[in-house]
Structure formats: structure tokens, C-alpha cells
Predict the 3D structure of the following.
Amino acid sequence: MSSPRYPVHGAGLGLRRALMGPLADSSADNLPDFLEIAPENWIPIGGALRRRFDQFAERYPLVCHGLSLSLGGPAPLDFAMLAEVRDFLRQYKVRCYSEHLSYCSDDGHLYDLMPIPFTEEAVKHVAGRIRQVQDFLGQRIAVEHVSYYAAPQQEMAEIDFINAVIREADCDLHLDVNNIWVNSINHRYDPHEFLRALPAERIIYCHVAGHYDEADDLKVDTHGTAVIDPVWALLAEACERVPGMPVLLERDFNFPPLAELLAELDHVRAIQAAAGKVSLAG
């Protein structure tokens, strides 16, 4: 059961089509505690694949992490799409809905998550759109701070921008420790200080993932490799700071055998358990 503080519990996995067969066929006792999906990927799907998805929805608690809302974009919000998302969330009793603190469209999709300028004007623009989305859906949403590789019109620090948006919008935070690590290398800041500056009371769950080492000073957020030790360490610190926080392992391609993914999930659970002991001792 999930607690009132969090929508789900334990260690989860992103549901990808390549994983559906291995997950359905597995009799392992360390399967995910919950699954994350992108609603846009499933809303239009019918037939046998939808029936297969329905079986997962009956078996696992679901959370939704959207891809195309474009909260920071200049174009009007797509309320027709939002209506479909709202119906999907209700149909499958989805525990929470989050989106990216970025934009991805302007008269057409860009198929990437673009950085929002860190400005006071952008804070008001994005926060207003988040409030519209929450009002339309009739529920709070969470926003995930994204990895980025350029910072146009940077009038504020990234951490100040994120915190201002969350405060102004009165929304929740979807933490991603890999994004913190990647950005800390690419933009040269202390990831631990950044983590400590985020509002712990707004965090509803956390992503952890692998990334690609382009160079010593350039990391690319890919979700296509195993999690590295510094990111595990950052996750451990986050779990100590936010006791009981659910954690989702992101893997989008280069899938290893399911046993390897489940071993990473076990590592997540070990970190969560150790953090719980620290919390009780404290």
C-alpha cells in the first residue's frame, strides 16, 4: 500500500514494450513494486497490445510521466490532449501524473526536451500553465527538473528557477538524481548542494538512471546504461533526506537481461532500506 505521503512505494521500473514479455514471463520474487508509463504512448493503442497493457495495469500500481505537454512552450496548452490524459488517468486509477519542466513544441513537436530560460518572466509563464493543467485535471501534478546542455537567457540559477516555479505553481516535484549529476558536471556545480536546496516536502518520487560519458566534462542523459556509483551515492543521500521516497529505475534502450535490471532494482531497495534505518536512528 502507498502511504498518504507518496502515491506508490518501493522500487519501480519504466514499462517499455521490450520489457513486457520478460516481465510477464518472469516468476522472480523481486519484480517491480510499480510501473511508470508515458500516457501518450498508450492512449492511442488498441487491440492485442492494449489488452496486454491492461494485464499489467491490473497487476501493478501505475504512475504516469508525460512527454509532450510542453509546459514551458509558447504555444497554447493542448487541452484536447489533456482531456485524453485525464480520462486515461481515471480509467487506470493512475496514482500520480508528472511532466517535464521544459518545452518540446511550437507549431509542431521538436522531439526533444528543450531548456526553459531561467528568468522571472519564464517562472510566471510556466507556473501559470501548471496551475491551468492542475485545474483542468482536478489534481496536483509534479514537474521533473530536466537535463540540459545550454542555458539561454540565464538570469537566475537553475535551482532558484526550479524552486520558484514549484512555489508559484503550488505543484509537486519529481526528483531525478541522474539529471542532477549530469547537469552538475556539464554546468559545474555541486550536486549535493543542489539536492539539499530542493524542497524535500514536495518530492513525490524519484528517477535514477544511467548516462553516456561523452567527455570528462560532458555527460549525456540517455537512460541506456547501468547506473554509476556517484549517482547511486546521490540517490542514497536523497533517500536519507526524503525517507520512504519511491524510486524508479529508468531504462529506455540497450536493455540487458531482466535479471540485471532486477539486480539494479534490488540495489535501489537496499539503498532505501539503509536510508530507513538511518532515519529511525535519527
Summary: The first helix runs from residue 17 to 25. The mean pLDDT is 90. The chain has one domain: 11-281. The domain at 11-281 is CATH 3.20.20.150 (TIM Barrel).
